[in-house]
Amino acid sequence: MFSGLWKRFQIFFSNARNRNITIAIVALLILSVLPWFRVGPPHVELAAESLLEHGPKWFTNGLLTTLLVDLVIILLAVFAVFRMKEVPGAWQNIVEMLIEGMWNLTQSIAGHGSANSRKFFPWVMTIFIFVLISNYIGLLPGFGSIGVWHSATGENHALVELGNQVAMAGGDAIAATAPAEEGAEVFVPLFRSPSADLNMTGALALISVFMTQFYGVQALGVGYFSKFFKNPFKDAMGAVVGFFELIAEISKIISFSFRLFGNIFAGEVVLLVMAFLVTFLLPSVFYGLELFIGFIQALVFMLLTLAFFTMATVSHDDHH
Amino acid sequence: MDALDKLGISWELLLSQIVNFGLLMVILQQLLYKPVLNMLEQRKQRIAQGLEQADQASHAAAEAEAEKQTILEEVRREAQEVRAQATRDAERIAQDVRSRADQEAQDIRMKAQADAEAQTAAVMADARKQIADLAIAATEQILGRELANRAEQERFVADYLAQQNGSGS
């Protein structure tokens, strides 16, 4: 039995490609545990940090990256529509495919050829592209690793403490090394995925929920709000349900913003923790996962917004 | 507010993100969505038009094919007619030739027969005459004298021969 196994090993290693890959994997795993290649404990920071130590507090890495994302999206768009041709080039083709796919999706939910589809499309399409690029840009090398050192003073100190508290959840090893940072200098990454900044996710959530109310009122008039406020003396049950509807509507802001933030922020933490545990190979697996999650979250944000828009334009009284 | 601060949420940043999104949406709507959707619509119409033209072309081709078939059919029928006519003519001519040949052959045969009959008759008459002469001569020899009334004797023999010939044949 063992000789058979040995035989198969020999056949496996007689292939140069198999042998090289195996050697590379083993070498990378060995290098991962050597002290020179160890990655430091993850820099975990819930809030986007100010880049300039003495400058305006609002100039955060999240804001900088948002502008970068805008630039990337506009450049990609310009490349796609620059000298647009009837017979599309490769990039034009890809962008057309994306937009047509989303346009068909929008129509399938909001109604084919309906005015609603045309109204909703720019909102949900922009949400999708913006969120997708925001999610993916955080996966680029240099994000979280290129940055500046700030002296730990005042409010920064509090942020470090919070960061350490979060870091402790990662395990004893992180907690043991974390206190060394305290009191010294604080590392502030230059870039931060906008999706991992609650300001961005919150802004999109506010836009989504506000526009839902806007389209509801546009479609149904003031009667739209009757689903929240019913006369308790006429319809006691309806009034209670309406109250819950109102709470659900407000909590959408929280669910929208924290769903995206949580997924992307946690994904980045996972990547950092994996890199901290095993420097090579292990993070690669999670990069694949993060690519998937980044796409799904963009799609979820878009589809939920689209569904809420569409639901808001439908009168609920008709069903009774 | 302290909790929001720790999460990094500030109204300035929130507002900036909202404005950013709005601007991005307007820019993309003008720069990307409208041209791309227009292009898609344009291409859709172009393809529909192309398909329609292809349809028309194939229709025309089918019509041309049908026309070709009718023309070929007509030509074939005409050829058939011409051939039939030619065959009929040839047959008629052949018939003529044959009947004329038959007629001539008939004529020749009739003439030959008539000649043969005439010859036979002449020979017979000649033979009769000689037989009669011989018979009279033989009789004279036997009787030892010339028969009187020679003319009557000749008539008598000729009558006899004629009678023999008539009952014999």
Please characterize this protein's 3D structure.
- The complex is a heterodimer of chains A (320) and B (169).
- In chain A, strands 1-2 form a two-stranded antiparallel ribbon.
- Chain A contains ten helices and two strands; from the N terminus they run αααααβααβααα.
- Chain A folds into two domains: 2-37; 62-148 and 190-319, no CATH class.
- The N and C termini of chain A lie far apart (73 Å).
- In chain A, 66% of the residues lie in helices and 3% in strands.
- In chain A, α3 crosses α5, α8 (198-220) packs antiparallel against α9 and α8 (198-220) packs parallel to α10 (282-312).
- Chain B has 169 residues and is mainly α.
- Helices cover 93% and strands 0% of the residues of chain B.
- Chain B is rod-shaped, with a radius of gyration of 63 Å.
- In chain B, 5% of the residues are buried.
- Classes of the chains: A mainly alpha (320), B mainly alpha (169).
- At the A-B interface, α3, α4, α5, α6 and α8 of A face α2 of B.
Features:
heterodimer; A: 320 residues; mainly alpha; 2 domains; two-stranded antiparallel sheet; 2 strands; globular; B: 169 residues; 0% strand
Instruction: Give the amount of beta strand of chain B, in percent.
Output: under 5%
Structural class of the helix and strand makeup of chain B?
mainly alpha
Portion of residues within helices of chain A: 55-70%
Radius of gyration of chain A: 25 Å
Number of helices of chain B: 3
Q: How do the strands and helices of this protein lay out in sequence?
A:
The complex is a heterodimer of chains A (320) and B (169).
Chain A: H1 2-14, H2 16-33, H3 61-81, H4 90-110, H5 115-137, E1 147-151, H6 155-168, H7 172-177, E2 185-189, H8 198-220, H9 236-277, H10 282-312
Antiparallel strand pairs in A: 1-2
Chain B: H1 2-6, H2 11-143, H3 150-168
Helix pairs in contact in B: 2-3
